[in-house]
Amino acid sequence: MKAAVLYEPGTPLVVEDLQLDPPKAGEVKVRVAANGACHSDLHVMTGDMRQPLPMVLGHEGAGVVEEVGAGVTSVKEGDHVVLSFNPVCGTCLYCTQGSPHLCETRPKTAGVLIDGTTRLHKNGADIHHFAFTASFAEETVVHESCAIKIRDDVPLDRACFVGCGTMTGVGAAINTAQVQPGSTVAVIGCGGVGLNVIQGAAIAGARQIIAVDLLDNKLEFAKTFGATHSVNPSQDDALPAVLELTQGRGVDYGFEVISTPKTIELAFKMTARGGTCTIVGVSPDGSRISLNPNVFMMMEKKLQGSYYGSTRPRVDMPRLIDMYMDGRLKIDELVSKTLPLEQVNQAYDLLKQGAVARSVITFS
Ligand SMILES: NC(=O)c1ccc[n+]([C@@H]2O[C@H](COP(=O)([O-])OP(=O)(O)OC[C@H]3O[C@@H](n4cnc5c(N)ncnc54)[C@H](O)[C@@H]3O)[C@@H](O)[C@H]2O)c1
Ligand SMILES: [Zn+2]
Ligand SMILES: [Zn+2]
């Protein structure tokens, strides 16, 4: 089967034939129908996020179950699934108390499935899996908990975004930050994930949502997703602009969705006293931020991270799909470009240029 492999940071992905092992016990083989081009893969391509190479990238996928390993009960051949990049055990402390995104059994080793091995090979040599999904590929084998059954009538080139960008963004606003009706929000970075933070804040009933991005086309997308105001830091100094829009207070909820130390610090400064700042962006390895601790104390500001929108995959993902099918969640508006796997590098060129909200790779 064909897959997009990264051999060296800074080099293009190579689309080539690989061998895929059958699913072991507790695993599922999925024929991938579509996979979105998220910035997290780009972090691996640039070397900002170090991963064992060679590796098949892709982690925003949806497809159809082709085969199940022994003991699999939650899906069967022919089921439509969204791929979750967060395997869960269902029995650890965090799974049991309703936070499966923090599952304690998530392996510490990157690039392999949870038993520590890979199902991907080329001429006998191991190829690694990115994010337990490796879905820039015609087929993939994942842990059962990473194959989330969804309804059959949702187009898979839309459902795939629930595998990362839509879930991460909407979940960051609704699950992690728990944005309240009538509140004020600022979102720095309005790419595929940030647009969904905006959408999540709008669904939660925020009264003011300020989009911050260096690119005017992103600020236009942001309006479509529910932003009420926009600030372009290449034209206006972002902090005074946000303070002016909020009677000098700052926002109840700041979000950083890029990630650089500067923009994290900026999001924290934009957050009002008593407010909460949430880091969604994945920082390059070795990054450090610098903040005045007395601001936490004197202003009772909070700084937190959001991993995968604090998703409970089997609850949140089918729910988001229902909202999309009911016309209450925007996904079509996210898709600027549809490309075949052979043009996966073009999808990343477009992402780097900031030309798209999201591109999607579809498989025939
Ligand atoms: N927390 C998670 O679980 C999770 C999941 C998926 C992605 N992510 C991360 O979220 C981040 C965003 O991903 P994406 O796919 O939306 O990326 P993207 O490239 O589509 O969007 C980034 C946006 O930031 C803007 N930007 C860049 N520098 C800026 C600056 N200095 N000021 C204002 N705007 C600026 C760009 O114009 C772009 O619109 C990435 O770091 C990605 O790895 C995190
Ligand atoms: Zn992603
Ligand atoms: Zn667990």
Q: Any overview of this molecule?
A:
The chain is an alpha/beta fold and 364 residues long. It has two domains: 195 residues, Medium-chain alcohol dehydrogenases, catalytic domain (Quinone Oxidoreductase, Chain A, domain 1); 140 residues, Rossmann fold. Helices cover 27% and strands 26% of the residues. It is built from eleven helices and 19 strands. Strands 4, 6, 7, 10, 11, 18 and 19 form a seven-stranded mixed sheet that branches. Helix 6 links the parallel strand 13 and strand 14. It is globular, with a radius of gyration of 20 Å. The chain starts with a strand and ends with a strand. The model has no long low-confidence stretch (mean pLDDT 97). Bound molecules: nicotinamide-adenine-dinucleotide and zinc ion (2 copies). One zinc ion (ZN) binds next to loops. The site of one zinc ion (ZN) has 8 residues, from helix 2.
User: Which structural class best describes the helix and strand composition?
Assistant: alpha/beta
Residues in β-strands, percent? 25-35%
**Helical fraction:** 25-40%
Give the CATH architecture of the largest domain. Alpha-Beta Complex
Q: Which radius of gyration do the C-alpha atoms yield?
A: 20 Å
Number of strands: 19
CATH topology (fold) name of the largest domain? Quinone Oxidoreductase, Chain A, domain 1
Overall average pLDDT: 97
Task: Please trace the helix and strand order, writing H or E for each element.
Answer: EEEEHEEEHEEEEHHEHEHEHEHEHEHEHE
Distance between the termini: 12 Å
Each distinct ligand: nicotinamide-adenine-dinucleotide, zinc ion
